Amino acid sequence: MAWKDTGKAGVPVRYFAVTYTRAETEAHFEAMRELICRGVFERGFAVAPGRREGETFLSFMIAESEADAYVKRIKEARP
């Protein structure tokens, strides 16, 4: 699930609330590290166990300009 909002200083952001498998979680953290290094990670990062074993629930905001590339990268990581 994802929706749009406005982050700090009026920057358009996309908010994600997603459950990932273990393989997807590893790809997510790698993608997030790159976003943080580039300064486009907004805020609101939360991690919790998913409903099923091996799943992770994550919620976060990233700059709208980076959201499509992030989604593409995670889809490519799916088995």
Shape: globular
The percent range for strand residues is: 25-35%
Low-pLDDT residue intervals, each spanning 5 or more residues: none
Portion of residues in helices? 25-40%
Give the ordered list of helices and strands. EEHEEH
* CATH architecture title: 2-Layer Sandwich
Describe this structure in words.
With 79 residues, the chain is α+β, with helices and mostly antiparallel strands. It has a single domain, classed as 2-Layer Sandwich (Alpha-Beta Plaits). It is built from 2 helices and 4 strands. It has helices at residues 22-38, 64-77; strands at residues 2-6, 12-20, 46-49, 56-63. A 4-stranded antiparallel β-sheet has the order 1-2-4-3. β3 and β4 form a beta hairpin. The longest helix is centred in the middle third of the chain and has 17 residues, at 22-38. It is globular and about 40 Å long. The two termini are 20 Å apart.
Short description:
This protein is an alpha+beta fold and about 80 residues long.
Strand and helix layout:
Elements: E1 2-6, E2 12-20, H1 22-38, E3 46-49, E4 56-63, H2 64-77
Antiparallel strand pairs: 1-2, 2-4, 3-4
Helix pairs in contact: 1-2
List the main descriptive attributes of the protein structure presented here.
alpha+beta, Alpha-Beta Plaits, about 80 residues
